[in-house]
Amino acid sequence: MCTPRTTWRGRGTRSRSRWDCRSNGPRGPRWCRTQSWCRGRRRGPARWRPRWRPHPGRRAPGCVGRVDRGVQGREWLVPSCSKAFERGRGFPVAFPGRGHGTDDAATCQPTGRPQKELTISKHESPEETAARLGKPGDYPFTRGIHASMYRGRRWTMRQYAGFGSAGETNARFRSLLEAGQTGLSVAFDLPTQMGLDSDDPLAAGEVGKVGVAIDSIDDMRRLMDGIPLDEVSTSMTINATAAALLLLYQLVAEEQGVDRERIRGTVQNDILKEYIARGTYIYPPEPSMRLVPDLFAYCAAELPAWNTISISGYHIREAGSTAAQEVGFTIANGLAYVEAAREAGLDVDEFAPRLSFFWNGHKDFLEEIAKYRAARRLWARLMRERVGATNPRSWTMRFHTQTAGSTLTAQQPENNIVRT
Protein backbone atom coordinates (compact mmCIF):
# COMPACT_ATOMS: atom_id res chain seq x y z
CA MET A 1 0.00 0.00 0.00
CA CYS A 2 1.10 3.63 -0.49
CA THR A 3 0.57 6.31 2.20
CA PRO A 4 1.07 10.10 1.81
CA ARG A 5 3.67 11.98 3.79
CA THR A 6 4.76 15.62 4.00
CA THR A 7 8.33 16.84 3.70
CA TRP A 8 9.88 20.27 4.16
CA ARG A 9 12.30 21.68 1.62
CA GLY A 10 13.74 24.18 4.09
CA ARG A 11 12.88 27.22 6.18
CA GLY A 12 10.07 29.26 4.66
CA THR A 13 9.37 26.87 1.85
CA ARG A 14 6.12 25.19 0.97
CA SER A 15 5.48 21.60 1.84
CA ARG A 16 4.68 19.04 -0.80
CA SER A 17 3.21 15.57 -0.64
CA ARG A 18 5.22 12.47 -1.37
CA TRP A 19 4.37 8.84 -0.99
CA ASP A 20 5.73 6.20 1.29
CA CYS A 21 5.69 2.80 -0.37
CA ARG A 22 4.81 -0.24 1.68
CA SER A 23 4.74 -3.85 0.69
CA ASN A 24 3.24 -6.81 2.48
CA GLY A 25 5.90 -9.07 0.98
CA PRO A 26 9.64 -9.30 1.58
CA ARG A 27 10.52 -7.29 -1.55
CA GLY A 28 9.86 -3.94 0.10
CA PRO A 29 9.27 -0.45 -1.32
CA ARG A 30 11.79 -0.80 -4.15
CA TRP A 31 9.60 -3.50 -5.65
CA CYS A 32 6.47 -1.48 -4.98
CA ARG A 33 7.71 1.40 -7.11
CA THR A 34 8.08 -0.86 -10.11
CA GLN A 35 4.36 -1.67 -10.14
CA SER A 36 1.84 0.24 -12.23
CA TRP A 37 -0.52 0.77 -9.27
CA CYS A 38 2.17 2.38 -7.07
CA ARG A 39 1.45 6.10 -6.61
CA GLY A 40 5.05 6.75 -5.70
CA ARG A 41 6.38 5.10 -8.83
CA ARG A 42 9.34 6.85 -10.36
CA ARG A 43 10.05 7.42 -14.00
CA GLY A 44 12.31 4.79 -15.55
CA PRO A 45 15.94 5.42 -16.28
CA ALA A 46 16.95 7.37 -19.36
CA ARG A 47 17.78 4.30 -21.39
CA TRP A 48 14.17 3.17 -21.18
CA ARG A 49 12.80 6.39 -22.57
CA PRO A 50 11.86 6.39 -26.25
CA ARG A 51 14.49 7.93 -28.41
CA TRP A 52 13.82 10.77 -30.76
CA ARG A 53 12.31 9.56 -34.00
CA PRO A 54 12.16 11.80 -37.04
CA HIS A 55 8.87 12.55 -38.74
CA PRO A 56 8.31 13.03 -42.46
CA GLY A 57 9.51 16.44 -43.56
CA ARG A 58 11.67 17.09 -40.48
CA ARG A 59 15.42 16.91 -40.21
CA ALA A 60 17.39 14.91 -37.75
CA PRO A 61 19.71 16.86 -35.43
CA GLY A 62 23.04 17.60 -37.11
CA CYS A 63 22.10 16.05 -40.45
CA VAL A 64 21.66 17.66 -43.85
CA GLY A 65 19.24 14.99 -45.02
CA ARG A 66 15.50 14.82 -45.10
CA VAL A 67 13.22 12.14 -43.74
CA ASP A 68 11.04 10.04 -46.01
CA ARG A 69 8.57 7.39 -45.09
CA GLY A 70 9.90 3.98 -46.05
CA VAL A 71 8.69 0.44 -46.28
CA GLN A 72 6.23 -0.93 -43.73
CA GLY A 73 5.49 2.51 -42.31
CA ARG A 74 8.96 3.05 -40.92
CA GLU A 75 10.75 6.34 -41.28
CA TRP A 76 14.28 6.39 -42.59
CA LEU A 77 16.74 9.19 -42.96
CA VAL A 78 17.83 9.83 -46.52
CA PRO A 79 20.96 12.01 -46.72
CA SER A 80 20.83 14.59 -49.48
CA CYS A 81 24.59 14.72 -50.03
CA SER A 82 27.74 12.81 -49.19
CA LYS A 83 28.54 15.18 -46.30
CA ALA A 84 26.00 13.25 -44.26
CA PHE A 85 28.30 10.24 -44.39
CA GLU A 86 31.29 12.33 -43.30
CA ARG A 87 29.35 13.67 -40.32
CA GLY A 88 28.29 10.18 -39.35
CA ARG A 89 24.61 11.01 -39.57
CA GLY A 90 21.74 9.44 -41.42
CA PHE A 91 21.02 6.07 -42.96
CA PRO A 92 20.70 5.89 -46.74
CA VAL A 93 18.04 3.76 -48.31
CA ALA A 94 19.82 3.63 -51.67
CA PHE A 95 23.23 2.05 -51.80
CA PRO A 96 26.18 3.71 -53.54
CA GLY A 97 27.42 2.86 -57.02
CA ARG A 98 28.52 -0.49 -58.36
CA GLY A 99 32.13 -0.13 -57.27
CA HIS A 100 33.60 -1.96 -54.32
CA GLY A 101 35.15 1.08 -52.65
CA THR A 102 34.26 2.07 -49.13
CA ASP A 103 34.65 5.87 -49.35
CA ASP A 104 31.00 6.42 -50.18
CA ALA A 105 29.65 3.39 -48.35
CA ALA A 106 26.93 3.73 -45.76
CA THR A 107 28.58 4.35 -42.42
CA CYS A 108 25.67 5.25 -40.15
CA GLN A 109 23.00 3.44 -38.21
CA PRO A 110 19.37 4.62 -38.27
CA THR A 111 19.95 6.30 -34.90
CA GLY A 112 22.72 8.46 -36.39
CA ARG A 113 25.56 6.74 -34.56
CA PRO A 114 28.66 6.05 -36.67
CA GLN A 115 28.90 2.52 -38.02
CA LYS A 116 32.36 0.99 -38.26
CA GLU A 117 33.41 -0.37 -41.61
CA LEU A 118 34.72 -3.51 -39.92
CA THR A 119 33.84 -4.81 -36.46
CA ILE A 120 36.56 -6.69 -34.58
CA SER A 121 36.10 -8.63 -31.37
CA LYS A 122 37.03 -6.78 -28.20
CA HIS A 123 38.33 -9.98 -26.65
CA GLU A 124 41.22 -10.49 -29.06
CA SER A 125 43.71 -8.39 -30.95
CA PRO A 126 43.23 -7.51 -34.64
CA GLU A 127 46.12 -9.83 -35.47
CA GLU A 128 44.41 -12.75 -33.72
CA THR A 129 41.13 -12.02 -35.51
CA ALA A 130 42.88 -11.83 -38.87
CA ALA A 131 44.62 -15.14 -38.25
CA ARG A 132 41.44 -16.88 -37.14
CA LEU A 133 38.85 -15.45 -39.53
CA GLY A 134 40.60 -13.12 -41.93
CA LYS A 135 39.23 -9.79 -43.09
CA PRO A 136 36.43 -9.47 -45.64
CA GLY A 137 37.95 -9.84 -49.07
CA ASP A 138 40.98 -11.75 -47.77
CA TYR A 139 41.70 -15.47 -47.57
CA PRO A 140 39.95 -17.62 -46.32
CA PHE A 141 37.00 -15.30 -47.07
CA THR A 142 35.03 -16.34 -44.01
CA ARG A 143 33.57 -12.85 -43.72
CA GLY A 144 32.98 -12.35 -47.43
CA ILE A 145 34.77 -12.30 -50.76
CA HIS A 146 34.68 -8.50 -51.12
CA ALA A 147 36.15 -5.95 -48.72
CA SER A 148 32.98 -3.82 -48.52
CA MET A 149 30.47 -6.56 -49.42
CA TYR A 150 26.96 -5.12 -49.92
CA ARG A 151 27.87 -1.74 -48.46
CA GLY A 152 29.79 -1.09 -51.66
CA ARG A 153 27.58 -2.91 -54.17
CA ARG A 154 24.08 -4.32 -53.99
CA TRP A 155 23.41 -7.89 -54.93
CA THR A 156 21.65 -8.66 -58.22
CA MET A 157 17.90 -9.05 -57.71
CA ARG A 158 16.11 -11.49 -60.00
CA GLN A 159 12.80 -13.25 -59.58
CA TYR A 160 12.52 -16.80 -60.82
CA ALA A 161 9.97 -16.64 -63.62
CA GLY A 162 8.78 -18.61 -66.63
CA PHE A 163 5.44 -20.04 -67.73
CA GLY A 164 3.43 -20.89 -70.83
CA SER A 165 4.81 -19.66 -74.13
CA ALA A 166 7.94 -17.62 -74.80
CA GLY A 167 5.81 -14.55 -75.56
CA GLU A 168 4.00 -14.73 -72.21
CA THR A 169 7.27 -15.10 -70.30
CA ASN A 170 8.79 -12.19 -72.26
CA ALA A 171 5.94 -9.95 -71.09
CA ARG A 172 6.61 -11.06 -67.53
CA PHE A 173 10.34 -10.33 -67.86
CA ARG A 174 9.65 -6.84 -69.17
CA SER A 175 7.27 -6.15 -66.32
CA LEU A 176 9.87 -7.25 -63.76
CA LEU A 177 12.61 -5.12 -65.32
CA GLU A 178 10.33 -2.07 -65.38
CA ALA A 179 9.61 -2.66 -61.68
CA GLY A 180 13.33 -2.40 -60.86
CA GLN A 181 14.62 -5.95 -61.17
CA THR A 182 18.30 -6.01 -62.14
CA GLY A 183 18.60 -9.48 -63.67
CA LEU A 184 16.58 -12.33 -65.18
CA SER A 185 16.09 -15.87 -63.91
CA VAL A 186 14.51 -18.27 -66.40
CA ALA A 187 12.36 -21.22 -65.33
CA PHE A 188 12.03 -23.89 -68.03
CA ASP A 189 9.24 -26.44 -68.20
CA LEU A 190 9.95 -30.11 -67.61
CA PRO A 191 10.07 -31.19 -71.29
CA THR A 192 12.71 -28.53 -72.02
CA GLN A 193 14.77 -29.72 -69.07
CA MET A 194 14.51 -33.32 -70.27
CA GLY A 195 15.35 -32.53 -73.91
CA LEU A 196 11.85 -33.19 -75.25
CA ASP A 197 10.04 -31.13 -77.89
CA SER A 198 6.62 -29.81 -76.98
CA ASP A 199 4.94 -32.16 -79.49
CA ASP A 200 6.60 -35.27 -78.07
CA PRO A 201 4.03 -37.70 -76.62
CA LEU A 202 6.09 -37.94 -73.44
CA ALA A 203 5.61 -34.18 -72.92
CA ALA A 204 1.82 -34.36 -72.81
CA GLY A 205 0.40 -32.37 -69.92
CA GLU A 206 3.71 -30.73 -69.01
CA VAL A 207 4.29 -28.16 -71.78
CA GLY A 208 4.50 -24.63 -70.40
CA LYS A 209 3.70 -25.88 -66.89
CA VAL A 210 5.65 -24.08 -64.12
CA GLY A 211 8.18 -23.04 -66.74
CA VAL A 212 8.54 -21.75 -70.29
CA ALA A 213 8.75 -24.13 -73.26
CA ILE A 214 11.80 -23.57 -75.51
CA ASP A 215 12.02 -25.87 -78.55
CA SER A 216 14.04 -23.80 -81.03
CA ILE A 217 15.95 -20.58 -81.59
CA ASP A 218 12.69 -18.90 -82.61
CA ASP A 219 11.35 -19.53 -79.11
CA MET A 220 14.52 -18.02 -77.63
CA ARG A 221 14.14 -14.96 -79.90
CA ARG A 222 10.60 -14.40 -78.64
CA LEU A 223 11.70 -14.98 -75.05
CA MET A 224 14.38 -12.26 -75.19
CA ASP A 225 12.65 -9.89 -77.60
CA GLY A 226 13.23 -6.26 -76.65
CA ILE A 227 15.48 -7.10 -73.68
CA PRO A 228 18.99 -5.56 -73.86
CA LEU A 229 21.18 -8.60 -73.26
CA ASP A 230 24.30 -6.43 -73.02
CA GLU A 231 22.86 -4.76 -69.90
CA VAL A 232 21.05 -7.62 -68.18
CA SER A 233 22.55 -10.84 -66.84
CA THR A 234 20.46 -13.98 -67.19
CA SER A 235 20.40 -17.02 -64.94
CA MET A 236 19.06 -20.18 -66.55
CA THR A 237 18.03 -23.11 -64.37
CA ILE A 238 18.96 -25.82 -66.83
CA ASN A 239 21.20 -28.86 -66.38
CA ALA A 240 21.02 -31.83 -68.74
CA THR A 241 20.42 -29.56 -71.77
CA ALA A 242 22.48 -26.62 -70.53
CA ALA A 243 24.88 -26.58 -73.50
CA ALA A 244 22.06 -26.39 -76.07
CA LEU A 245 20.12 -23.64 -74.26
CA LEU A 246 23.27 -21.58 -73.70
CA LEU A 247 24.09 -21.72 -77.41
CA LEU A 248 20.59 -20.53 -78.33
CA TYR A 249 20.94 -17.63 -75.87
CA GLN A 250 24.36 -16.71 -77.27
CA LEU A 251 23.08 -16.70 -80.86
CA VAL A 252 20.16 -14.42 -79.96
CA ALA A 253 22.49 -12.05 -78.11
CA GLU A 254 24.82 -11.89 -81.13
CA GLU A 255 21.81 -11.14 -83.34
CA GLN A 256 21.23 -8.11 -81.10
CA GLY A 257 24.81 -7.02 -81.76
CA VAL A 258 26.14 -7.89 -78.30
CA ASP A 259 29.85 -8.71 -78.11
CA ARG A 260 30.66 -12.12 -76.68
CA GLU A 261 32.70 -10.53 -73.91
CA ARG A 262 29.57 -8.69 -72.69
CA ILE A 263 27.23 -11.68 -72.55
CA ARG A 264 26.71 -12.28 -68.83
CA GLY A 265 24.79 -14.88 -66.92
CA THR A 266 24.79 -18.38 -65.44
CA VAL A 267 23.71 -21.86 -66.42
CA GLN A 268 23.13 -24.26 -63.56
CA ASN A 269 24.82 -27.18 -65.35
CA ASP A 270 24.98 -29.18 -62.08
CA ILE A 271 24.12 -32.68 -63.21
CA LEU A 272 25.30 -34.52 -60.08
CA LYS A 273 22.65 -33.00 -57.84
CA GLU A 274 20.04 -34.21 -60.35
CA TYR A 275 21.00 -37.78 -59.50
CA ILE A 276 21.01 -36.93 -55.79
CA ALA A 277 17.90 -34.84 -55.30
CA ARG A 278 15.98 -33.69 -58.37
CA GLY A 279 15.88 -36.26 -61.18
CA THR A 280 15.95 -34.23 -64.42
CA TYR A 281 18.82 -36.09 -66.08
CA ILE A 282 18.97 -37.69 -69.53
CA TYR A 283 22.23 -39.63 -69.72
CA PRO A 284 24.06 -41.84 -67.20
CA PRO A 285 26.48 -40.09 -64.84
CA GLU A 286 29.74 -40.80 -66.69
CA PRO A 287 28.79 -39.28 -70.09
CA SER A 288 26.96 -36.48 -68.34
CA MET A 289 30.13 -35.58 -66.45
CA ARG A 290 31.99 -35.26 -69.77
CA LEU A 291 29.61 -32.49 -70.86
CA VAL A 292 30.34 -30.31 -67.82
CA PRO A 293 34.07 -29.66 -68.47
CA ASP A 294 33.29 -29.29 -72.19
CA LEU A 295 31.12 -26.32 -71.28
CA PHE A 296 33.90 -24.99 -69.02
CA ALA A 297 36.34 -25.04 -71.93
CA TYR A 298 33.88 -23.49 -74.39
CA CYS A 299 32.99 -20.57 -72.12
CA ALA A 300 36.65 -19.93 -71.25
CA ALA A 301 37.32 -19.46 -74.97
CA GLU A 302 34.07 -17.87 -76.19
CA LEU A 303 32.10 -16.39 -73.25
CA PRO A 304 34.61 -15.19 -70.64
CA ALA A 305 32.00 -13.37 -68.53
CA TRP A 306 29.64 -16.35 -68.27
CA ASN A 307 29.35 -18.43 -65.09
CA THR A 308 29.71 -21.99 -66.33
CA ILE A 309 28.03 -23.79 -63.42
CA SER A 310 25.93 -23.14 -60.34
CA ILE A 311 26.82 -25.95 -57.94
CA SER A 312 23.58 -26.36 -56.06
CA GLY A 313 22.89 -27.23 -52.47
CA TYR A 314 19.39 -25.78 -52.63
CA HIS A 315 17.73 -28.88 -54.05
CA ILE A 316 19.59 -31.17 -51.67
CA ARG A 317 18.28 -29.15 -48.72
CA GLU A 318 14.76 -29.17 -50.16
CA ALA A 319 15.01 -32.96 -50.45
CA GLY A 320 15.43 -33.20 -46.67
CA SER A 321 19.09 -32.67 -45.79
CA THR A 322 20.38 -30.63 -42.87
CA ALA A 323 22.44 -27.48 -43.32
CA ALA A 324 25.67 -29.40 -42.67
CA GLN A 325 24.72 -32.11 -45.17
CA GLU A 326 23.84 -29.45 -47.74
CA VAL A 327 27.35 -27.99 -47.47
CA GLY A 328 29.03 -31.39 -47.45
CA PHE A 329 27.30 -32.86 -50.51
CA THR A 330 27.54 -29.62 -52.49
CA ILE A 331 31.25 -29.07 -51.91
CA ALA A 332 31.89 -32.75 -52.70
CA ASN A 333 30.09 -32.23 -56.01
CA GLY A 334 32.14 -29.11 -56.64
CA LEU A 335 35.40 -30.99 -56.12
CA ALA A 336 34.18 -33.71 -58.50
CA TYR A 337 33.65 -31.11 -61.24
CA VAL A 338 37.06 -29.58 -60.59
CA GLU A 339 38.76 -32.99 -60.85
CA ALA A 340 36.81 -33.85 -64.03
CA ALA A 341 37.93 -30.59 -65.64
CA ARG A 342 41.56 -31.17 -64.65
CA GLU A 343 41.44 -34.70 -66.09
CA ALA A 344 40.14 -33.15 -69.32
CA GLY A 345 43.29 -31.05 -69.49
CA LEU A 346 41.94 -27.70 -68.23
CA ASP A 347 44.00 -25.40 -66.03
CA VAL A 348 42.23 -24.88 -62.71
CA ASP A 349 42.98 -21.15 -62.64
CA GLU A 350 41.32 -20.73 -66.04
CA PHE A 351 37.91 -22.18 -65.15
CA ALA A 352 37.69 -21.99 -61.33
CA PRO A 353 37.08 -18.19 -61.17
CA ARG A 354 33.79 -18.70 -63.07
CA LEU A 355 32.46 -21.42 -60.75
CA SER A 356 29.47 -20.37 -58.67
CA PHE A 357 27.27 -21.92 -55.99
CA PHE A 358 23.57 -21.92 -55.12
CA TRP A 359 22.50 -22.23 -51.48
CA ASN A 360 19.20 -22.63 -49.67
CA GLY A 361 18.19 -19.82 -47.31
CA HIS A 362 16.27 -21.67 -44.59
CA LYS A 363 14.36 -20.25 -41.64
CA ASP A 364 17.07 -20.61 -38.95
CA PHE A 365 18.74 -17.24 -39.51
CA LEU A 366 21.85 -17.73 -37.41
CA GLU A 367 22.45 -21.27 -38.65
CA GLU A 368 22.30 -20.05 -42.24
CA ILE A 369 24.85 -17.30 -41.57
CA ALA A 370 27.19 -19.85 -40.01
CA LYS A 371 26.63 -22.17 -42.97
CA TYR A 372 27.66 -19.55 -45.52
CA ARG A 373 30.74 -18.55 -43.53
CA ALA A 374 31.85 -22.16 -43.06
CA ALA A 375 31.27 -22.99 -46.73
CA ARG A 376 33.33 -20.03 -47.95
CA ARG A 377 36.17 -20.91 -45.60
CA LEU A 378 36.12 -24.61 -46.45
CA TRP A 379 36.05 -24.05 -50.22
CA ALA A 380 38.93 -21.56 -50.08
CA ARG A 381 41.15 -23.95 -48.13
CA LEU A 382 40.32 -26.91 -50.39
CA MET A 383 41.01 -24.98 -53.58
CA ARG A 384 44.31 -23.59 -52.35
CA GLU A 385 45.71 -26.46 -50.30
CA ARG A 386 44.22 -29.56 -51.93
CA VAL A 387 43.64 -28.55 -55.55
CA GLY A 388 46.64 -26.24 -55.74
CA ALA A 389 44.98 -23.20 -57.33
CA THR A 390 47.20 -20.11 -57.25
CA ASN A 391 44.79 -17.42 -58.46
CA PRO A 392 43.00 -15.83 -55.44
CA ARG A 393 39.82 -15.62 -57.52
CA SER A 394 39.88 -19.42 -57.74
CA TRP A 395 39.64 -19.59 -53.95
CA THR A 396 36.50 -17.46 -53.64
CA MET A 397 33.03 -18.96 -53.32
CA ARG A 398 30.62 -16.77 -55.24
CA PHE A 399 27.07 -17.88 -54.55
CA HIS A 400 23.41 -17.14 -55.06
CA THR A 401 20.74 -17.80 -52.42
CA GLN A 402 17.00 -18.38 -52.59
CA THR A 403 14.69 -18.77 -49.65
CA ALA A 404 13.49 -22.28 -48.85
CA GLY A 405 10.32 -23.35 -50.58
CA SER A 406 9.89 -26.13 -48.02
CA THR A 407 9.19 -23.52 -45.31
CA LEU A 408 6.06 -22.25 -47.11
CA THR A 409 2.55 -23.49 -46.40
CA ALA A 410 -0.66 -23.18 -48.41
CA GLN A 411 -2.59 -22.39 -45.22
CA GLN A 412 -0.52 -19.28 -44.31
CA PRO A 413 -0.01 -17.17 -47.47
CA GLU A 414 0.73 -13.96 -45.57
CA ASN A 415 3.36 -15.66 -43.43
CA ASN A 416 4.91 -16.98 -46.65
CA ILE A 417 5.65 -13.40 -47.68
CA VAL A 418 7.68 -12.89 -44.51
CA ARG A 419 9.43 -16.25 -44.84
CA THR A 420 10.60 -15.45 -48.38
Task: Describe the structure concisely.
The chain has 420 residues and is an alpha/beta fold. The protein folds into three domains: 2-43, no CATH class; 54-154, no CATH class; 155-419, Alpha-Beta Barrel (TIM Barrel). The protein contains 15 helices and twelve strands.
List the helices and strands and how they pair.
Blueprint (H helix, E strand, L loop, with lengths): L1 E6 L8 E6 L6 H5 L33 E4 L5 E4 L4 H5 L38 H7 L27 E2 L4 H13 L4 E5 L2 H4 L23 H7 L9 E5 L4 H14 L9 E3 L4 H7 L6 H18 L3 E2 L1 E4 L1 H5 L4 H21 L4 H4 L3 E7 L3 H23 L4 H4 L3 E5 L9 H7 L1
Parallel strand pairs: 5-6, 6-7, 7-8, 8-9, 10-11, 11-12
Antiparallel strand pairs: 1-2, 3-4
Description of the molecule:
The protein is of the alpha/beta class. It has 3 domains: 2-43, no CATH class; 54-154, no CATH class; 155-419, Alpha-Beta Barrel (TIM Barrel), CATH 3.20.20.240. 34% of the residues lie in helices and 13% in strands. It contains 15 helices and 12 strands. The strands form 4 sheets. The protein has a 5-stranded parallel sheet, covered by helices on one side. Helix 4 (166-178) runs parallel beside helix 6 and helix 11 runs parallel beside helix 13 (365-387). The longest helix is centred in the C-terminal third of the chain and has 23 residues, at 365-387. It starts with a strand and ends with a helix. Mean pLDDT is 80; it is low at 4-10, 12-20 and 44-106.
